[in-house]
Every structure is written in C-alpha cells, then in structure tokens.
UniProtKB/TrEMBL annotation:
<dbReference type="GO" id="GO:0046872">
    <property type="term" value="F:metal ion binding"/>
</dbReference>
<feature type="domain" description="Peptidase M48">
    <location>
        <begin position="72"/>
        <end position="257"/>
    </location>
</feature>
<dbReference type="InterPro" id="IPR051156">
    <property type="entry name" value="Mito/Outer_Membr_Metalloprot"/>
</dbReference>
<dbReference type="GO" id="GO:0051603">
    <property type="term" value="P:proteolysis involved in protein catabolic process"/>
</dbReference>
<protein>
    <submittedName>
        <fullName>Putative Zn-dependent protease</fullName>
    </submittedName>
</protein>
<dbReference type="Pfam" id="PF01435">
    <property type="entry name" value="Peptidase_M48"/>
</dbReference>
<keyword id="KW-0479">Metal-binding</keyword>
<dbReference type="GO" id="GO:0004222">
    <property type="term" value="F:metalloendopeptidase activity"/>
</dbReference>
<keyword id="KW-0862">Zinc</keyword>
<feature type="signal peptide">
    <location>
        <begin position="1"/>
        <end position="23"/>
    </location>
</feature>
<dbReference type="InterPro" id="IPR001915">
    <property type="entry name" value="Peptidase_M48"/>
</dbReference>
<dbReference type="GO" id="GO:0016020">
    <property type="term" value="C:membrane"/>
</dbReference>
<keyword id="KW-0378">Hydrolase</keyword>
<keyword id="KW-0645">Protease</keyword>
<keyword id="KW-0482">Metalloprotease</keyword>
<keyword id="KW-0732">Signal</keyword>
Length: 491
C-alpha cells in the first residue's frame, strides 16, 4: 500500500462490494490474461496492424500505472531485450516489432496487448531459473500477438455481452434464458482455453528454433504452481479439469507442454543458459516495493509511514497498491488502508458519513489503541457481518474492515488481536526494515539445502521457498559450484 495512494484515497466506498471482492482475489497467474481492451474492431472484423498498434498504445500507460510503473534495471532490460530479439528471429513474423516492459510488481504475471506490447513482471523474472524458462513465457505471449488472440477474444467478449442483453430482453422464460447464456459462456471459456494451448505450442516451437530448451515451458508451469501453493498455504494437487476457467488447469497445461516439447527430442535438447540468467537477475528486487510497505511473516510494516500491525497466525497477508488484504482459513477477510480525513473531522463523523452499509449506530465506541484515538463499530449487510476500526495517528487516519458470513468468538478474537497490534515505529525501528532482493551465491563444500535456506530472509518457510526458487526437488542435493538464488535484505 503506497503512501501516495493513502494521500489520494477517497472517503466514499462500497463496503459490501469491496469485502466480497476481497475474498475472491487471486494475484498469481499461471497463464496470460489480456486486460480489458477498448476501441477494438467490431466482432467478425480483422483489424490491420495500425489499428492493433493504436489499441496497444492507448492501453499501455494504463497497464504500467496499474502495475506500479516500469521496473528500471539496465542489466535486466538488456538481457530481456536480447532474448526477445532472439525469439522474434525464430518466430512466424520475424519482422514484427515488439515493445517489452518489465513491470514493477511482485506478482507472477505476463501478458500481451495488440500491436506487439509485451509485459512481464519482475516477480516472474525472479521466479524463473534460466533463459529458457523466461523465453517460454515471452514466446507464449508473442504467440498471442501473432495469432491475434487479444483481438479475437475482445470480439468474442463483445458478442457474449450482446447475447446476454438479447436474452434478457427477448427470452421471457427465465430457465430457458439462463440455459442459453450458460452455453454461450462455456463456448467463450473454451475459446480461451484453445488460445492458451495454441500459444503454448507455438511458444515452445519458437523457443526450440531459438536453440533453447523446449521443456522449459512445462518445467516453469510446475514451478508457478508450486509457488502459488506456497503463497496460498494449500496444496494444488489433483487433476481436475476446470472447463469454465479462462486458463486450463495447470496439470493439463503441463501435460500438453511436455507432449509439444517431445516433438523436438529428449529432455537434454536445447540450452538453458542458467548461469548467464542468474548473473543478470542478481540484485533484482523481490517482493513488495519499498514505497508499498512490506509483509514479513504475519506482520505488515510500512517504514515510511512508521506503522505496523499483525493479524493472528493463519491469516494470509497480501500487500496491494490499494490496500493490505488478509484472508483467514475459515474465509474471514480483512482489509487495511488509509483514508483522507481532515484532522478537524471527528472519527465518528467520518464513520457515519454514509460509506458503511448497514452500520449499527449503537455499536460505535471510542477507544485508545497504543496511545492513538480510535473508533470501533459493527455493520451487517447482505448476509455479511462487518467490524470496522478507525485509528488516527496525528494527521493520518487508518481503517481496518473485517468481514465474515459466520461470526463467532474466533472472529471477534482475531479482530481484537489485529487492531490492538497496531503501533507506530520509531525512526530506528523503521530503518531496520529493508526491502528484499534476489542474491546469487555459489554452493561450497558441505553446503546443504537446510544451510542455504537458513540464510533466507522474510519467508515463513525458508526451505520451501528456497527449493521453489531454485527448482530443487525433495531428495535432491546441492552440488559444489552450483549457483543459487537467496532472498536477502537489499544491500
């Protein structure tokens, strides 16, 4: 959560909607997903390259802003640029220009816009282990561009919206109308799945023609799945098909990617160029950007704002540019952000100004939390139970919102523990918290996974994260001279 964002937050908000959305958020992507595209050609028409470039150019600033800006790292930019050039030369359109942007986001994501606009997050780059794995992602996104998937998908969305509107107006029988719209939704989702698998296949071929390991795509898909499970704290096992998903289930994609790679030979075909890749990413920022604050274990710390709080163990914290989110194992949710309230306005006045749906006025009570004036209250709306806490620190106002559909003693205890943990930091305490980076080290004689993992910073389970970041399976041992990624405080 950025300090700039806190200063600009508006007072009004839809409380029920924001909490419902909170419970369903997922930031890690295991495929590509184009953002909403405006100005597309009408359904059924194929726009020319100039139209595609115009679409990409219009959307580009929005994408960069939404992902925290571009990540500036000259060494990394040169490596990615050369790798894209290498892939373009082996693609079906070697004369097509591309614009690649590294986004300053810790999420693992990559996507493409029409006109050759490619995006990859620093979070994805940090997770990949060699040039072949990054090439698999970039070639996949290039395939979306050359196959005009973004345009086709936007046209399909337009058609889908039209069908829904027609059904709402023309079909009087509710059951029949719902059935027709459901069938159309299945068709649209299936269309997206076909695109993803097609892009995988084309990307693997492009990587192979560039001299890189075609099996890198399946390997990195597995790594992304493992990392997703690590972040969410649950195992992603099983091979359940998810037909309505815009991306095929990860196990399905892995199998298809392995099958596509086998067309070109065995596992040793192509190069990985791991050492050169690790040299390029040495020092890359890992996790939250400094101006967004940090998640450390089960605590959120913002050194610039000099604040800290800790939900109970078991809550999974996620730091976004708009707010800090947390979800408990039972589905209870928490949102923390800053709001723009004049110091002259009493907290009670802000609380009752209309932004809380279903506010129970009799529940409002004043309190002092670690020396700071605060207001606590309850609300109920649309089956949700809410607890709100406002805390004032000098001229700043911070807001906690908790939500559940099943209020109980555990929920109330978690609220009290979280709110009472809120505290301000001294300058020295704040300065002790540093952003994290990827540091490349070399294994020496006697080094083990456990010894290396003990050097990891900012991780709940250092050994698991170390294994995922370095693609080291259970039972595998380190080799003397092997280059490895560690998460360490920034130098």
């Amino acid at each position: 959560m950025s300090k700039k964002r806190i200063d600009k937050l508006k007072m009004a908000g839809a409380l029920c909607l924001s909490l419902m959305l909170l419970a369903g958020c997922k930031s890690l992507m295991t495929g590509s997903e184009e953002p909403t595209i405006s100005g597309v050609a009408p359904a059924g028409l194929s726009p020319n390259d100039s139209v595609e470039r115009a679409i990409g150019a219009k959307e580009h600033p929005k994408i960069v802003k939404a992902y925290g800006g571009a990540y500036e790292n000259r060494k990394l930019e040169q490596m990615v640029s050369k790798l894209v050039g290498r892939l373009v030369g082996s693609s079906s359109e070697p004369s097509r220009p591309y614009r690649v942007t590294i986004l300053n986001s810790p999420t693992v994501n990559a996507f493409a816009l029409p006109g050759g606009y490619l995006y990859v997050t620093r979070g994805l780059i940090a997770l990949a282990n060699d040039k072949a794995e990054l090439a698999a992602v970039l070639a996949h996104e290039m395939a979306h561009v050359t196959s005009r998937h973004a345009i086709a998908r936007a046209a399909a969305r337009q058609n889908s919206e039209l069908v829904s509107k027609v059904m709402d107006k023309m079909v009087s029988e509710r059951t029949k109308g719902a059935t027709i719209k459901a069938r159309h939704l299945v068709t649209l989702a299936s269309f997206s799945q076909v695109q993803e698998l097609e892009a995988d296949k084309i990307g693997i071929e492009t990587a192979y023609l560039s001299g890189l390991d075609p099996f890198a795509a399946s390997r990195f898909l597995q790594t992304m799945g493992d990392y997703a499970a690590y972040l969410t704290g649950r195992s992603e096992q099983g091979n359940k098909a998810n037909f309505l998903s815009s991306h095929p289930a990860t196990p399905e994609r892995i199998k298809a990617a392995v099958f596509a790679a086998r067309r070109y030979g065995g596992p040793e075909i192509g190069t990985r160029e791991r050492d050169a890749y690790l040299d390029a990413i040495d020092g890359i920022l890992f996790g939250d950007a400094p101006d967004e604050g940090f998640v450390r274990g089960n605590s959120y710390i913002h050194p610039a704002l000099r604040i800290r709080f800790s939900p109970p163990e078991g809550y999974r914290l996620e730091n976004t540019s708009k707010a800090v989110l947390a979800v408990a194992p039972d589905g209870s949710a928490m949102r923390f952000d800053g709001v723009n309230v004049s110091p002259d306005v009493p907290l009670t006045n802000y609380l009752t100004s209309g932004w809380v749906s279903g506010l129970i006025t009799g529940s409002i009570r004043e309190q002092v939390i670690n020396g700071h004036p605060a207001i606590l209250a309850a609300a109920e709306a649309k089956g949700w139970t809410f607890r709100i806490a406002l805390i004032r620190v000098k001229s700043a106002t911070y807001r906690f919102v908790f939500a559940t559909t099943k209020p109980n003693a555990t929920f109330e205890s978690a609220i009290a523990e979280t709110v009472n943990s809120f505290q301000t930091l001294t300058h020295d305490q704040a300065a002790a918290f540093k952003p994290l980076q990827i540091t490349i080290v070399t294994a020496g004689y006697g080094d083990t996974v456990q010894k290396m993992a003990a050097r990891m910073a900012g991780a709940n389970d250092g050994e698991t994260l170390f294994r995922i970041l370095n693609d080291i399976k259970t039972g595998e041992h380190l080799k003397r001279g092997q280059k490895l990624k560690l998460v360490t405080p920034m130098r």
